[in-house]
Amino acid sequence: MGSEPAKGLPVMDLHHNSRRAKYMHKFKLYETCSSEVECYELLHTLHDGNKSIGGLKFVTICYGIVGFIKFLGPYYMLLITKRRKIGMICGHSVYSITKSGMIPIPNSTVQSNMAYSKNENGYENLLRTVDLTEDFFFSYSYHVMLSIKKNIGNHETGLGLYETMFVWNEYLTHGIRNQLKNTMWTVALVYGFFKQVKLSVSGRSFLLTLVARRSCHCAGTRYLKRGVNRKDLVANDVETEQIVIEDGRETSSIQISSVVQNRGSIPLFWLQETSRLNIKPDIILSRKDTNYEATKLHFENLVKRYGNPIIILNLVKTCEKKPRESILRAEFANAIEFINKDLSEKNHLKFLHWDLNKYSRKATRALARLVDVAAYALDLTDFFYCQGVPTSRSDELLNWSYFVNNQDHPAKKVYDRKGSAEVRDNSRNSGGDNFQEPLMFQNGVLRTNCIDCLDRTNVAQYAYGLVALCRQLHALGFIDVSAIDWIPL
Question: Which residue ranges does UniProt annotate as crossing the membrane (predicted)?
Answer without folding.
Answer: 58-78
